[in-house]
Write a structure and sequence with these properties.
Elements (H helix, E strand, L loop, with lengths): L5 E6 L2 E6 L10 H16 L5 E6 L27 H9 L10 H10 L5 E5 L3 E2 L1 H4 L6 E5 L3 E3 L2 H4 L7 H9 L1 H10 L2 E3 H6 L5 E3 L4 H13 L3 H15 L5 H14 L1 H12 L17 H8 L3
Helix pairs in contact: 1-3, 6-7, 10-11
Bound molecules: ligand A1D88.
GO molecular function: enoyl-CoA hydratase activity
EC number: 4.2.1.17
Family: Belongs to the enoyl-CoA hydratase/isomerase family.
Length: 296
Amino acid sequence: MDYSTLKYTVSDRVLTLTLNRPQQLNAFTVTMANELVHAFERASEDDAVGVVVVTGEGRAFCAGMDLSVGGNVFGLDESQQPTLEDLHKRLDDPTIIDGVRDTGGRVTLAIYDCKKPVIAAINGPAVGIGITMTLAMDIRLASEKARMGFVFGRLGIVLEACSSWFLPRIVGMAKALDWVYSADIFDAQEALVGGLVKSVHAQDELLEAAYAIARPLAQRSPVANALARRMLYRNSAYAHPLDAHRVDSLAVFYTSQGDGREGVRAFLEKRDARFTTRASSDMPSFYEDWLARDGK
Ligand SMILES: C/C=C/C(=O)SCCNC(=O)CCNC(=O)[C@H](O)C(C)(C)COP(=O)(O)OP(=O)(O)OC[C@H]1O[C@@H](n2cnc3c(N)ncnc32)[C@H](O)[C@@H]1OP(=O)(O)O
């Protein structure tokens, strides 16, 4: 697939995924959603990719849904207003989910299901879906020029793309309610204090800061990275009792024996480890089952 709204560039096992509509402040469209879903599925199976870094071309990260489409951001006219029951039926049937154009939700799930760690390098304004899409990413870094906002209340809509699931888990319920109710656009320092971003960087040092995290992580065992990511998210799905988690934890521990033995040998021999497992083919059989059933 050729992308018209993204750039997909791999170097040193790090995929840089760049939102690429700079004239429109990288505003989010249905095409961008489709391309993001494709790119995250591709990154998941691309053994040349160890870690994904997401950033924006130009001065913005993403100005949210492209509002130039007018009031119809949902892709529905009023006569098509689905009931909750309809939506549940549609969610169970992937062939008609596109009919309700759950653009944000599909992107969130593609990121959530990705086998690779994902880092957001927020280089400028990130509001609406521009910030909520980063909640499904594992680490967020911001430039000094970043401004963020859960601005939905200003538009009379409710935070979307499963962000009400992620936001309180990341920043706590009090901060989530504060930002959602105020609908304010806040700066990188406030995001840092609130726990939304890990660190704040000069504009021209942001990507290098992201790569400094991504590059060594991309050299680690791909299967261990994927399983650690899945275990943490499954755990935070709160749908998973501790006893069951203990058994799964043991299964994951034994799965990591392949690269794990090599890691221990390399440590003892004072050399770099040579990990050989592949996330495309060496995932344990329970992994697909978890993806299909758990935590969503
Ligand atoms: C289901 C829904 C999901 C959602 O995502 S809802 C949220 C939708 N997005 C928004 O409500 C954001 C609206 N935009 C803003 O608040 C601000 O912009 C920013 C904070 C993103 C950036 O502010 P600044 O740096 O001061 O730029 P500027 O002068 O406001 O914008 C430059 C031009 O870009 C247009 N623009 C900005 N955001 C959008 C958008 N989301 N869709 C379409 N156009 C947009 C503006 O109108 C303007 O245009 P011109 O130069 O002609 O005045």
